[in-house]
Design goal:
Layout lengths: L13 E8 L5 H9 L7 E6 L11 E5 L2 E4 L4 E5 L3 H10 L10 E5 L7 H9 L1 H4 L2 E11 L3 H7 L1 H8 L3 E5 L6 H14 L4 E4 L7 H4 L8 H8 L14 E8 L5 H15 L3 E8 L8 E6 L2 E2 L3 E2 L10 E8 L3 H13 L9
Parallel strand pairs: 1-6, 1-7, 2-5, 2-6, 7-8, 8-9
Antiparallel strand pairs: 3-4, 4-5, 10-15, 11-12, 11-15, 12-13, 12-14
Helix pairs in contact: 5-6
């Protein structure tokens, strides 16, 4: 493996799942439900920008300063400011009096744009040395979600950036209203998996692993995704674009193309995920980005010889697909050296 690319995603680092969702959409209810599951042991739960840890009190076993230790060995703490500092402190405490944890879940506030937290998890050196962004899960209220997605940018971004969307309160609305909110979210983010809190098993296994490509099955499922049409009904159109190449690409040229893309379109790039086959590399690499922040490529040696070609999926806002595709075609036509038409 070339030293310029990191190890397989999650190898030696702790996976982090981000739980987001608009005010009243059922994040805390879902979290308390998850905490009843034995598989949540050895999980650190960080509740971001929340004054009090909103947990069922019978879960709590003891407190260690700002950290609550639950009966199943799960750690919980709240943070109102320096999220990066709290993550670092929790990691350092693994050698102290607190139970050892093997993964982390961060619950955002209902009014939080998840993009800055994702950027921190993808880009801050002290964080990415020890943690990897595993998945983004968003709760969407089936009763009020249509209006919230239409009127609140935060709710819209939460759904657009998610790997998995959990619909809540579907038991309070009819089948047609449920189908309508499903169509709405699928138009905003066609790459996301859709779950129902009322009827699906929402276990830690369904929560973690949604954004990673650490198995052949998940990689093939993700690679088979097809972009859907733009959601032009929203005041800020969102599209999902797929760019592919059937041959290995030179990393230096691809890196320059991605850099030019984010310099020109950073605010319109909601999320970028990809698998790239590169010239001179034995295994493909995973690419992740949010707005202008991109994680260093991560080598996927377990997929060597199994995944062929390059596939980038871009979730964008108000960015014409024709412009992206023209730039990509020009890039490929020049054997990966042209940055024109970006």
């Amino acid at each position: 493996m070339n030293e310029r690319f990191g190890p397989r995603d999650g190898d030696g680092r702790l996976p982090v799942a981000l739980l987001t969702g608009f005010l009243g959409s059922g994040k805390t209810t879902l979290l308390n439900r998850l905490l009843r599951h034995p598989a949540m042991a050895k999980t650190a739960v960080v509740i971001n920008e929340f004054g009090e840890i909103p947990l069922d009190q019978h879960f709590v076993e003891k407190s260690e300063g700002e950290v609550v230790v639950l009966a199943n060995g799960c750690l919980c703490c709240s943070v109102q400011g320096d999220l990066e500092g709290v993550i670092g402190t929790l990691f350092a405490s693994r050698r102290g009096n607190l139970p050892v944890f093997e993964r982390m879940l961060i619950e955002t506030s209902g009014l939080a744009d998840p993009a800055p937290i994702m950027q921190m998890l993808l880009n801050q050196p002290l964080v990415i040395d020890n943690f990897s962004l595993d998945s983004v899960v968003a709760t969407v209220d089936a009763v009020h979600g249509e209006r919230q997605l239409r009127e609140h940018e935060e709710a819209f971004k939460q759904a657009a950036l998610a790997d998995r969307v959990v619909f809540t309160k579907t038991d309070l609305c009819g089948p047609e209203q449920t189908r309508a909110i499903e169509r709405r979210v699928a138009a905003i983010n066609p790459a996301a998996s859709l779950l129902h809190a009322a009827k699906d098993e929402i276990s830690p296994a369904r929560l973690f692993g949604g954004g990673r490509l650490d198995s052949l099955a998940s990689a093939q499922q993700w690679l088979s995704h097809r972009a859907a049409a733009s959601d032009h009904r929203h005041s800020v159109p969102v599209s999902c674009h797929t760019l592919t190449a059937d041959r290995p690409l030179p990393w230096q040229a691809l890196n320059l193309w991605l850099r030019a893309l984010r310099i020109r379109h950073a605010e319109r790039l909601l999320r970028v995920k990809g698998i790239a086959n590169l010239q001179g590399e034995h295994a493909p690499v995973a690419l992740h980005g949010v707005h202008h922040v991109f994680h260093p490529p991560v080598a996927l040696p377990h997929l060597a010889g199994e995944v062929h070609g390059t596939r980038l999926v871009l979730i964008t806002r108000d960015l014409p697909g024709e412009e992206l595709e023209a730039g990509w075609r020009a890039f490929l036509a020049q054997n990966g050296v042209s940055l024109s038409h970006l």
